[in-house]
C-alpha cells in the first residue's frame, strides 16, 4: 500500500505511516487523510487509500472529504467572532436578531440555547427534501415558523442539522455587510489564516476532488426514533444525498462541510493556540478558554443522541468516562474540545499541548469506531495527548 506524506516531521513519518496503514488494512478504512499541528507548525500530513471506489481514484493531498458535523466548529467560530465584536449577546433571544424567529413559542430561545444544543429545535421540517435542504432561505424560513420540541433551555437535544442554519442566520443578520456564513467565514477566518480547503458548500469546479462516500449500515432503530427526525433518511448522510451536485454546492452550515485534513487541522490549530495562528488573531484567548465549560445538564441524556454528551459552546468536550459516550471520541483530557462528524470524521484540540488533529475519511461508520485507534495511539505516543 502506498502511504503518501506531505510536510511531515521526520521522526513522525514512520509511526504515522504505520498507523494509517493499520487503520486501512486492519480497521477497514478506505480513503483517509490525517493531519496534526503542533503550535503553528504542520507536523503530520499523511494520506492513503481510495477516494472513489467506483472510479478507482486514489486519495490525493487535495482530496476533499465530506466532514459533516465537523463543520459546526467553523460555523460556531463565526458566531463567537460576532460576539467578540459586541454584535451578539449569547443570552439574548435569537429573535432579537431574527424577528420572524419568535413564532410558535421561540420568543425566549437564546443564542446560548442554540450553541448548547438546548433549543428544542432539533427536528428537520416535515416537508424537507434534498432540494429544499440545499435552499438556505427555505430552510431558515421553515425553521423560523416551527415550534420547538421542548421548552428551550430545559432539556438537551442535539441539533444534528438545524444547528448550522440557526447559528448562521444570526451571523448573517448581525453582520453589517449581511454576508452569508460561507462568505463571512472565508473573509473573516479562513483567508486571514491562509486556509484554502475548508468549504461550506463546494463550487462545481472542485467537485472532481470530492471523495465518494461508502455508506454506513442502517441504524437498527424504530422509524419514529428522534435521530430520524433530526436527520430524516431521505436527506441523510449518504452518498445518494451528499454526492448530489446541488447538495455539495449548498450552504448547509451544520453538516455540509468539505475539507482536506491539512486545512481542517490548520483551522483547529488556531483554537489550540488560544485563538491565534501565525501571528493572526481570530478570537480572544479568554473566549477560547471558555469553550470547555459544559452546558447545563451536560450529564443528562440527550433526547436525540440517546446518551449523555458533554457539549460546550458549540463544541464537544472530552473527559466523559462513559465508554459508550460519543464524547470519548475527543479523549480524556478535560481541557480538550473539538467536533466529530457523521461517519466518524473528527477534529479536536488539546490546548495544554497546543496540538490540533484532524482525521477525515470516506467510509461511513457508526461511532464509536475502533478503526482510527492506531492513529489516536500514534498521536498519544508522539505528543502525550490523551
Itemize the secondary structure elements and their pairings.
Blueprint lengths: L2 E3 L4 H16 L5 E8 L2 E12 L4 E2 L6 E2 L5 H13 L9 H4 L13 H5 L14 H4 L2 H10 L16 H13 L6 H13 L4 E3 L25 H5 L8 H4 L2 H5 L7 E3 L1 H12 L3 E2 L2 E2 L3 H5 L26 E2 L19 E4 L5 E5 L4 E7 L11 H11 L3
Antiparallel strand pairs: 1-3, 2-3, 2-13, 3-4, 5-7, 6-7, 8-9, 10-11, 11-12, 12-13
Give short descriptive properties of this protein.
Beta-lactamase; alpha+beta; 386 residues; 3-stranded antiparallel sheet; 8-stranded antiparallel sheet
How would you characterize this protein structure?
- The chain is an alpha+beta fold.
- It has a single domain (3-75, 185-383), classed as 3-Layer(aba) Sandwich (Beta-lactamase).
- 31% of the residues lie in helices and 14% in strands.
- It is built from 14 helices and 13 strands.
- The longest helix has 16 residues, at 10-25.
- The chain is globular, with a radius of gyration of 19 Å.
- It starts with a strand and ends with a helix.
Amino acid at each position: 500500500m502506498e502511504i503518501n506524506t506531505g510536510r511531515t516531521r521526520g521522526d513522525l513519518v514512520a509511526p504515522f505511516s504505520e498507523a494509517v496503514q493499520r487503520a486501512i488494512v486492519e480497521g477497514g478504512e478506505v480513503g483517509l487523510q490525517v493531519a496534526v499541528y503542533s503550535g503553528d507548525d504542520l507536523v503530520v500530513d499523511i494520506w492513503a487509500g481510495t477516494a472513489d471506489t467506483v472510479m478507482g481514484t486514489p486519495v490525493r493531498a487535495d482530496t476533499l472529504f465530506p466532514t459533516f458535523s465537523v463543520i459546526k466548529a467553523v460555523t460556531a467560530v463565526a458566531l463567537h467572532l460576532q460576539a467578540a465584536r459586541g454584535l451578539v449577546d449569547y443570552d439574548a433571544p435569537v429573535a432579537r436578531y431574527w424577528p420572524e424567529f419568535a413564532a410558535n413559542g421561540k420568543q425566549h430561545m437564546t443564542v446560548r440555547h442554540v450553541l448548547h444544543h438546548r433549543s428544542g429545535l432539533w427536528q428537520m421540517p416535515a416537508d424537507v427534501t434534498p432540494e429544499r435542504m440545499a435552499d438556505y432561505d427555505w430552510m431558515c424560513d421553515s425553521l423560523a415558523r416551527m415550534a420547538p420540541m421542548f421548552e428551550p433551555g430545559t432539556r438537551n437535544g442535539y441539533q444534528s442539522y438545524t444547528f448550522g442554519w440557526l447559528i448562521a442566520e444570526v451571523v448573517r443578520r448581525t453582520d453589517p455587510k449581511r454576508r452569508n456564513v460561507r462568505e463571512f467565514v472565508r473573509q473573516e477566518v479562513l483567508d486571514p489564516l491562509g486556509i484554502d480547503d475548508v468549504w461550506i458548500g463546494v463550487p462545481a469546479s472542485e467537485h472532481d476532488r470530492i471523495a465518494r462516500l461508502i455508506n454506513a449500515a442502517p441504524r437498527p432503530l424504530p422509524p419514529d426514533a428522534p435521530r430520524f427526525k433530526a436527520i430524516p433518511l431521505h436527506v441523510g448522510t449518504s452518498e445518494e444525498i451528499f454526492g448530489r451536485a446541488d447538495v455539495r454546492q449548498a450552504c448547509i452550515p451544520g453538516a455540509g462541510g468539505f475539507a482536506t485534513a491539512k486545512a481542517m487541522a490548520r483551522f483547529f490549530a488556531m483554537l489550540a493556540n488560544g485563538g491565534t495562528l501565525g501571528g493572526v488573531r481570530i478570537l480572544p484567548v479568554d473566549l477560547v478558554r471558555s469553550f470547555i465549560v459544559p452546558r447545563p445538564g451536560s450529564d443528562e441524556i440527550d433526547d436525540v443522541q440517546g446518551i449523555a454528551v458533554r457539549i460546550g459552546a458549540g463544541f464537544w468536550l472530552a473527559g466523559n468516562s462513559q465508554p459508550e459516550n460519543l464524547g470519548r471520541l475527543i479523549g480524556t483530557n478535560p481541557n480538550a474540545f473539538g467536533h466529530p462528524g457523521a461517519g466518524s470524521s473528527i477534529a479536536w484540540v488539546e490546548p495544554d499541548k497546543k496540538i490540533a488533529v484532524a482525521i477525515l475519511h470516506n467510509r461511513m461508520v457508526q461511532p464509536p469506531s475502533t478503526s482510527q485507534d492506531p492513529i489516536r495511539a500514534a498521536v498519544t505516543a508522539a505528543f502525550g495527548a490523551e
